Fold this sequence. Notes:
Blueprint: E1 5-6, E2 9-10, E3 13-18, H1 22-29, H2 31-49, E4 53-57, E5 62-67, H3 72-88, H4 93-100, H5 114-130
Antiparallel strand pairs: 1-2, 3-5, 4-5
Helix pairs in contact: 1-2, 1-5, 2-3, 2-4
Amino acid sequence: MNFRVENGKPELGLMFIDLDNFKHYNDTYGHDVGDLVLKEMADIFSGLCEKQGFVCRYGGDEYIIVFFTADKERLKETAKQIYQKIDQADGFEKAISEKLKNRFPSGKSSAFPAPLESCWQKTFMARKKSTR
């Protein structure tokens, strides 16, 4: 792990990440599914940041990423990559469906329950509005 030192002090960058609408989602579908989503998000953050810093869970649905650089362009690019990975995860549909299939034994174990899809749509719409 190399980081830049300027005037004898390390140069660091920080990202504070708060998952929008997570409380409603966690309260509606249960803490076991909420924990799954938190883990999936942490995997995205650490996967993209492991060579340039480290990830810490700050609170319930909040994370801090510490980077070994304060280069704003590099941090912006990493933020874009995080958003892309979250979009590619498609609401973690596969992992959540697998977790929920015992709760919804209707024969549609791979189907994403409609209320859950609506919740994820609200979450991602809130994210898209906040990034404009």
